[in-house]
Amino acid sequence: MLDLACGRGRHARWWAARGHAVTAVDRDAEALHSLAGVAGIEVVQAELEEQTWPLAGRCFDLVVVTNYLWRPRFDALLDTVAPGGLLLYETFTAGQETIGRPARAEFLLQPGELLQRCAGWQVQGFEQGLLAAPARFVQRVAARRPAAAADRHDAQRNSLPEWPLSQG
């Protein structure tokens, strides 16, 4: 499981506590320090926006991204999802600038953008709009990469069991 732009690792901790191997990636060394020594978590400090992609050639059965968007790396991010693997992605969308941060367009998804980015994948669920408590405009998608492409990724996968997602 990959927790990308993990911050202090809320998702990484949750998955590791359930016995899954987790790779937690963030640029903030102080935030990552809180994950050091947590069983089952590999910590990778990397500046995702300025250096070589730190996960080149690696694949994960589950990739989780929350509150992070850097479009120049989106294709590389999708490549980290193993064939048959699942992407869970949630971040801010247009409209957020009317109520708070982030407010810059480059950090806000356009309507339906996550669906477009996951074209050809099996979308398990998609939502967009205003959420309450705390108020924020978001898009979220759960999308499974087609399994037909079983290839170079097989040898490098981190394993997670299959589980059903509700179609809501």
**In CATH terms, what is the fold-level topology?**
Rossmann fold
How is the main sheet built? 7 strands, mixed
Strand elements, count: 7
Gyration radius from CA atoms, angstroms: 16 Å
Give the N-terminus to C-terminus distance in angstroms. Answer: 23 Å
The CATH superfamily appears as Vaccinia Virus protein VP39
Total number of helices: 4
CATH architecture: 3-Layer(aba) Sandwich
Low-confidence stretches: 150-168
Describe this structure as you would to a colleague.
- The chain has about 170 residues and is of the alpha/beta class.
- It has a single domain, classed as Vaccinia Virus protein VP39 (Rossmann fold, 3-Layer(aba) Sandwich).
- It is about 15% helix and about 30% strand.
- It has 4 helices and 7 strands.
- It has helices at about 10-15, 30-35, 75-80, 115, and strands spanning about 1-5, 20-25, 40-45, 60-65, 80-90, 120-130, 135-145.
- Strands 3-2-1-4-5-7-6 form a 7-stranded mixed β-sheet.
- α2 links the parallel β2 (about 20-25) and β3.
- The radius of gyration is 16 Å and the shape is globular.
- The model is unreliable at about 150-168 (pLDDT under 50).
- InterPro entries: Methyltransf_25, SAM-dependent_MTases_sf.
- Pfam families: Methyltransf_25.
- This is Methyltransferase domain-containing protein.
